[in-house]
Amino acid sequence: MLPGAERKGETVQHDRFTWRQTLTATLAAAALCAAGYVLAAESGIPKLSGVWQFGQCADGSRMRCLILLENDPLLTDRAKAFRDAMDEAAQPKYDCAPMSIPHMWTDPYSHQIEQFDDRIVFTYGKDDVVRTAWLPNSKHPKPAKNEFLYFGDSRARYENGALIVETTRFAFDPQGLNADFRLPSSTQKKVVERYTREGDDLILEVTTTDPFYLKKPWVYKVRSKRDPEPLALPWDCDASASQDILKMMAPKFPNDPPIKRLPVE
Amino acid sequence: MKSRIAMMIGALTLLATTAGAHHSAAGIYDLKVEMELKGKVKEWRFANPHPLLKIDVVDAKGVTQEWDVSYGGSAVTHLKKRGYSAQTFKAGDIVIVKGHPTLLKEAHGLLIENGNPTHEDGRPYP
Predict the structure, then answer these.
(1) What is the rounded CA–CA span in Å between residue A178 and residue A72?
(2) Residues A27 and A64 occupy one common structural domain
(3) Domain check: are A169 and A194 in the same one?
(4) Considering only CB atoms, which residues of chain B are within 8 Å of chain A?
(5) Model's pTM, two decimal places?
(6) Most buried by CB count within 10 Å: which residue of A124, A185, B64, B121?
(7) Is A202 domain-assigned?
(8) What is the pLDDT of residue B112?
(9) Is A257 within the bounds of a domain?
(10) Cβ atoms of B66 and B54 closer than 8 Å
């Protein structure tokens, strides 16, 4: 209470002054908030940096939404034919090759996001995978017409409070949609990631299209909590440990010469 | 049960059981069958992508077979959270393991889906 406020005659005036002051302050604050909102909407940069746990399906199905099933209705006949012809032992995963996106997100490991002025860097807790998504002000060159990449070419932008990452230019990948069921992805695969925040959670919405192997877009949404622990890196895949399980499987083509894999240096 | 296993090192006890679907393991292991083995640790490979326990098991005919005991999709980081380390098993340790055998009988592989191996006296590892 201000000095003299206890004097009745002046108290009214003081109250009026306080009311006007409060109204003015409220209007000013509202204006500032509105301006701030506009600025926030214009910048639209959500705070995503940090380590995040393995995402759980937002529909409550734990990780079901992340998995394209062996006979999933989304699969084209081409996808099913490839699945049936592909030799499990020929899958690159047995040579320590990482899973590409979107299948990589089925693995239960945390990941880290780092936001820089010209790029977003994603580091995954498995397979020592680091992806870079280039923001519009980056001078990073686009791939040449004859250049295809295991994790594709990722371009990022901020839009309405979300980080959008669009990835194309994938190399053909025999385990590109699901390594467990030998579901491939083509050079025409496109993966769009949309990252937002809901309270303390990270929300990732993924839309995958591939006209060769998917009848229509495959869409899912996962929610992640912050991980208080740093990533357990390096992963340091042991190729012999990766290949041990192959002897548990009957060869798909028993009349072919046995596979002798190249030594890993 | 424990004494019977002790008398019959390597004897296999087959128990019909139902198991939840495991997509990456379903084509390799018989998830409807559960088996218990007693063997001597030959090697403990605490490495990614999947740690592996190799044990020598003497079968009913007295023949020693090497079995690969797998923790399925678990990696080093997952087993560390359960208390495992590179020193959890030492060569020569006697262990009892329970899991699903490979569909390919001659492969001698076992998948531990739940629980942990135990010492002879029933104490669990790690």
Answers:
(1) 11
(2) no
(3) yes
(4) 23-24, 27-29, 45, 47-52, 68, 70, 73, 75-78, 80, 102, 104, 107, 109
(5) 0.80
(6) A185
(7) yes
(8) 94
(9) no
(10) yes
Cis ω on the peptide bond leading into residue A102 (within 30° of 0)?
yes
Task: Provide, rounded to the nearest whole percent, the portion of chain A with pLDDT above 90.
Answer: 73
> Do A241 and B48 count as a contact with CB atoms less than 8 A apart?
yes
The residue segments making up the domain with residue A31 are 7-43
Q: Please write the tens of the pLDDT for every residue from B17-61.
A: 322 223 457 778 999 999 999 999 999 999 999 999 999 999 999
Instruction: Give yes or no: residues A74 and A167 share one domain.
Output: yes
Assess whether A201 and A114 both reside in one domain: yes
Strand segments (E) across B3-126: 13-16, 33-45, 52-58, 64-70, 94-101, 109-111
- Interchain CB distance below 8 Å, B47 and A235: no
Residues B17 and B30 sit within 8 Å (Cβ to Cβ) = no
Are residues A15 and A100 located together in one domain of the fold? no
Residues A34 and A141 placed together within one structural domain of the fold? no
Task: Tell me the pLDDT tens digit for each residue of A9-48.
Answer: 333 333 444 445 545 545 554 554 444 333 344 468 999 9
* Number of domains within chain A: 2
Query: What was the ipTM of the complex prediction?
Result: 0.76
* Chain A residues closer than 8 Å to B48 by CB: 235-238, 241
Chain A interface, best mutation among B23, B30, B48, by max A CB count within 10 A: B48
Domains along chain B with CATH numbers: 2-111 (2.40.50)
The whole-angstrom distance between B27's CA and the closest CA on chain A is 8
